[in-house]
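== Item description ==
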Amino acid sequence: MNKLLRRKAQFTVCVIVRNLAWNADEVSLRPRPLDFGALDDHLQQQKADVIFACFGLNEAFKGQEGLSDFSKDLQDFLKHLKQQQFNGKNSPQIVLVSPIAQENKGGFLPDPKVNNQNLSMYTKEMRKVAANLNIPFIDLYQP
C-alpha cells in the first residue's frame, strides 16, 4: 500500500505545433491562393490553444509612415483572436513575438542601420500593443 501512495502521477502531454505563416506575411496582408481558406478556418481546424503571432519584420520596411497603420491593424487582429474559441472551449493564449535585428554581415551587403532603427521602432510599438491588450510579449529584437 505504501508503494501505491508513493507512486507519482504520470501525465502524457502532446504538443502539436503548426506554422500557418508564409514568407512575407503581414498583419493586414496574407496573400493565399483562391479557396485556400481564411486564417480563422485553419485555426479552427487545428483547435488552436496557443498562438504565437510573429509580425513586424516586413511592415518595418515602411518606416515611420507605416507605424500607425501597423499598430492599429495589429491591435485589431489581436483583439479578434482573443474573442475566438478555436478549440471550442476557451479563447486562445496569444503571445506576440517581435522580429529580430538585422545583422551587419559586412562585405557588399547593405548597412542594416536604417532597417534596425525601423525594427526597433516597430518592436517598441508591438510592446505597447501587447501591454494594452494584456498579451505576453517576447522581444527578439534585443539580444
In short: The beta strands are 50-54, 93-97, 137-138.
